[in-house]
Design brief:
Protein name: RIP metalloprotease RseP
Number of domains: 2
Shape: elongated
Membrane topology: Multi-pass membrane protein
Oligomer: single chain
Strand order of the largest sheet: 5-4-6-7
EC number: 3.4.24.-
Radius of gyration: 24 Å
InterPro entries: PDZ, PDZ_sf, Pept_M50_Zn, Peptidase_M50
Number of helices: 8
Family: Belongs to the peptidase M50B family.
Low-confidence stretches: none
Length: about 325
């Protein structure tokens, strides 16, 4: 129960981070903010401060920064709709961008505390192919097929490059350093789906502050690349509806990660933050991406998108998103019990 409560609080915090991005840039841009809310549905707490109502709502499945004239017409000179296109663009972009920046900071924190994977074998996985072929703990991988391995990520890249043009049964040349001597063997790898693996867990090596920041930024980039592939797989039918997860599934997984340790939880929190940032950048009506697209269109062409048409697409997109969230939530609840 404790882990579930922590998970809900952290999920709400990610929403807070996202909406705060919109909020702070809107305020700096002179756009009037009517309400800043976390959660959806009935209000359980609210406080008026200046022109803005601050609220916490019952259901922790979203949040919003309600700006004057954002979704309807307004005569207020400080309304969102009357702001210059570049201010609207920056205000909407700030939400997902804040999530991505926050994720980078979380990944950097994890890297600084746990280090980064090295080229040295720490332990073997179950049925490890290289263990059964004579390799040992503390072996340092130097080369794969005569290609130098500079860091851990080079290993999977070298294997994938090799097997693009070779049969799964073809052996690779693996060179390691053991007791200050080089050992070279031809070995057969194992495949998990289409992914070739050697079957070991690397030792971690400590990293400095600035290197941890670089690792955090790279981690955000690699996760975005992965999400592009996932999105492509969903559209092509390679991944089904069962692969999607909603708020209930996210909170459940956060609870599981919390039980595995604080660093696991922080890393997963970063992963969810990247998800929020990435999907809100997609040009789908009712998501931030649609307003980013229309503002950018206006900045380039100097022409406004018809407000009434935009509103109809936004309403339609909102209904579709709510329907999808409902279906995914039902699926998550069924899996939960």
């Amino acid at each position: 129960m404790k882990s579930v409560i922590i998970s809900i609080i952290m999920f709400l915090f990610l929403i807070l981070i996202h909406e705060f991005g919109h909020f702070i840039v809107a305020k700096k841009s002179g756009i009037k903010v009517n309400e800043f809310a976390i959660g959806m549905g009935p209000k359980i707490f609210s406080k008026q401060k200046g022109e803005t109502l601050y609220s916490i709502n019952l259901f922790p499945i979203g949040g919003y920064c309600a700006m004057e004239g954002e979704d309807n017409e307004s005569d207020d000179e400080r309304s969102f709709d009357k702001a210059p296109a570049y201010k609207r663009f920056l205000t909407i972009l700030a939400g997902p961008l804040t999530n991505l920046i926050f994720a980078g900071l979380l990944f950097s924190l994890v890297s600084f505390n746990t280090g980064k994977p090295s080229k040295i074998v720490g332990e073997f996985t179950e049925n490890s192919p290289i263990k059964s072929q004579g390799f040992k703990v503390n072996d340092e991988i130097l080369e794969i097929n005569n290609k130098e391995i500079k860091e851990f990520s080079d290993i999977s890249k070298s294997l994938e490059d090799f097997y693009k043009n070779h049969n799964k049964n073809d052996e690779i040349s693996l060179t390691v350093k053991r007791n200050n001597k080089e050992v070279e063997k031809n070995v057969r790898v194992k495949f998990e789906g289409k992914r070739p693996i050697l079957g070991f867990i690397p030792k971690n090596q400590k990293v400095g502050f600035f290197e941890a920041i670089v690792i955090g930024i790279k981690q955000v980039g690699s996760m975005i690349s992965m999400m592009v592939l996932v999105l492509k797989s969903l559209f092509t039918g390679q991944l089904g509806f069962s692969a999607l997860s909603g708020p209930v599934g996210v909170v459940k997984e956060m609870g599981r990660q919390a039980n595995l340790g604080i660093m696991n939880l922080i890393f997963f929190l970063g992963y969810i933050s990247v998800n929020l940032g990435f999907f809100n950048l997609l040009p789908i009506p009712a998501l931030d991406g649609s307003k980013i697209f229309t503002s950018l269109f206006e900045m380039i062409t100097k022409k406004r998108v018809n407000k009434k048409i935009e509103e109809k697409f936004t309403i339609g997109g909102f209904i579709l998103l709510l329907g999808l969230i409902l279906l995914v939530t039902i699926k998550d609840l069924i899996n939960l019990f």
